[in-house]
Amino acid sequence: MTLSASLSAQQFDDSIQLEQDGSILTLWLNRPESRNAMSLNMVKAIQQVFKAIENDLSIRAVILRGQGGHFCAGGDIKDMAQLRGEAVTAGSNQPYVDFNRQFGHMIQQVDQAPQTVVAILEGAVLGGGFGLACVSDIAISLADAKFGLPETGLGVIPAQIAPFVVKRIGLTQARRLALLGTRFDGQTALKVGVVHEVVENQQDLDALLLETIQQIKRTAPQASRVTKALLHRTLNEPLHSLLDDAAQQFANAVGGEEGMEGTMAFIQKRNPNWFDGD
């Protein structure tokens, strides 16, 4: 499993691991001893990966997973302790601000990534891990995964993930979950809209992930990128001008290589040339 050119020249912190199988990149959170709690190094490494692949059309999807049976238990308490010392030395709270905002930049980067982002949710999905799940395009969970926004119970706030949680599940549910800080399982995560599919065991999880990857491979690479960007724009732009621009993008797609290839493949009852699956 050789990494693409955009990644092979990079040096990444060992808090993450990368595996590439053709057009599918798996990014493993790799701090199992802390249930993959996010250190500053991990945050920066994730940013580095998504920056490197931003314009890499050979990578169709990024699978986010956690080593050791957990997705992510939130922020690293050890980093917080170190920041406390830095804040005392600096005589201000700026080290806390910088750390927290760095995480916000990362989660926004994942949210806006042109690739399809799939989150595989097992074990702890808490705090920042919950936020990361909320910016995935497809979220698949084990039934016994443990979700939650525990920040208020720790005397802190879900500062950077709050907007993404609200966009994912709506203000009413976000208020309840954040203000109570309750833990809940995969089935409840499905009901409130955090995840899209729930399975009972590892075998079913692997099978559903494989099926999802096959579906991703059937979609046209450039059309998928443009579609994801268009969907994001619907939340922030005036409708009339957005639809005008979308019509132009549609025309470009129909007259482009993918549009012509997709049409011919349909007529000829064959897979399009971008499909590299079985």
UniProtKB/TrEMBL annotation:
Annotated InterPro entries: ClpP/crotonase-like_dom_sf, Enoyl-CoA_hydra/iso, Enoyl-CoA_hydra_C, Enoyl-CoA_Hydratase/Isomerase
UniProt entry tagged with the keyword Nuclease: no
Keyword Oxidoreductase carried by entry: no
One GO MF term attached to the UniProt entry: isomerase activity
UniProt entry keywords in alphabetical sequence: Isomerase
Pfam families registered for this protein in UniProt: ECH_1
Signal peptide: none
Gene3D superfamilies xrefs: 2-enoyl-CoA Hydratase, Chain A, domain 1, Lyase 2-enoyl-coa Hydratase, Chain A, domain 2
Entry's Gene Ontology BP terms: isoprenoid catabolic process
Family note: Belongs to the enoyl-CoA hydratase/isomerase family.
Designated name of the protein: Enoyl-CoA hydratase/isomerase family protein
Naturally occurring in which organism (per UniProt): Acinetobacter wuhouensis
